[in-house]
Amino acid sequence: MLISNKALFFSLLLGQHYFSGNADDISVNSDINDEDVSTKAKLSFQHFQEFNNPESPKSQILRHRHKHDENGSRTSDSSYSLSEDGPKKEKATSSPTPLRPGLALRGIYPTDAPAEEALEAGGVKTAFQSIATLAVENPNLSILVNAMAKVNLVKPLNNPGNYTLFAPTNDAFGKLPTGTVEKYMGTGWGMHLEDIVMSHLTTDHVKAGNLIDGAEINTLNGDTMLITKDPDAKINGYISITGSDIKASNGFLDEIDGVILPPSALLDIGKYAEIVSDIDVIPYSFKSLLSLLKLADLSDFISSTSPITLVAPHDSAIEKLDPDFVNYLADPQRKDVLTKLLKYHIIAGNKYKKIIVSGDEIETLSGDSIKIFKNIKFGQYKSNKMIINFKATVVDSDVLANNGVIHVVDTLLVPEDVQDAYNNFKSNL
């Protein structure tokens, strides 16, 4: 017997279980290629606590303070503070053309700032080296340099500008869980690696000696570093600045003894969706989707399978469904139907927006394909967002988690055979 629509929606929104059953376990799809991903590299929630104590995951996500513009892009309104005797920086009033148009260098721009004047060394004037040159010539930073090279960041950091690179040493990378470096340096993790590297870089001269307790420093991945002093400055509560204020022609290089790990490297898709759903300033929630995944026994699947891309309908997308259709899916006797529908929203691999070709048909784990368009004009229909199956709009793309990517959509996707089965069911009532 079906439960009432009101009770059903209440159960979905609160994530409670009203159904039970003995369905077979759902296995990991064999088409997922994990050759480049060490099974030891997955950073768990416990790792998050270990590497970011005493901060909670919610606190770190809140520190991102993302704004969402009409195109679904995330920007940061966070700021940093210096001590009273430190230099005061004016905010930029314009953004020149990026060095890599279309790619996510997010904030690194050429500037008209001249290279710093030469310094006196033994009575001889010697020009300062760039941040990139200082890093490349330092054997203790070889892992960082390799990561920078992989995301095309070495050349931009040779240019004039005002940057500070907080540079993890090789020993700092060695503190990470086994396989972490190999994972993100491997094939198919480029945007994740870029997010990690950019979390160590700012577009201001930040002198470590001028930092004060509670200061927040903008980073180029849209995050902020949180500074604490007791008595020495630490980044995010656990990273010490070991070699500070090394002067460069275009800023400063500060060696640090830990790797700054953004949420993209610390939280799996399920945990990220759960935490975001409890943050009011994020303009969407996934409580209904998470409840449906539990009903289909797919919660562990989206948290442990790597790498995957989840096309995630937010709560409003679930709420606008025909209640009879939700009842149909939630019937424990149709668990296989719900499972197929949800797997229609999961793709093997990291499908970043920038690598998706408009008009591509991409196979999902249900065995069916979805068609994705970007910047389309179809008759009178025009959109600069990603559109899936001409039904769902991607309202936020490339939300990164440690086992894949989330694209947030405003409509639940329904495979044709699931829709046909439901229509046949209704006609026989």
- Name the helicity range: 25-40%
Give the C-alpha Rg.
24 Å
- Classify the secondary structure makeup into a structural class: alpha+beta
How many β-strands, per DSSP? 18
Structural features, described:
The chain has 16 helices and 18 strands. With 429 residues, the chain is of the alpha+beta class. The protein has two domains: 5-39 and 268-427, FAS1 domain (Roll); 55-85 and 104-263, FAS1 domain (Roll). Strands 6-5-11-10-9-8-7 form a seven-stranded mixed β-sheet. Strand 10 and strand 11 form a beta hairpin. Helix 1 (5-14) crosses helix 11. The longest helix is centred in the C-terminal third of the chain and has 12 residues, at 416-427. Residues 1-54 and 64-115 have low confidence and may be disordered.
Summary of the model, kept short:
The protein has helices at residues 5-14, 45-52, 57-64, 131-136, 142-150, 170-174, 180-185, 190-198, 263-266, 269-276, 287-295, 299-304, 315-319, 323-330, 335-343, 416-427; strands at residues 66-68, 74-76, 119-121, 124-126, 163-168, 201-202, 216-218, 224-229, 233-235, 239-248, 251-256, 308-313, 346-348, 360-363, 369-378, 381-388, 392-401, 404-409. By secondary structure, the chain is an alpha+beta fold.
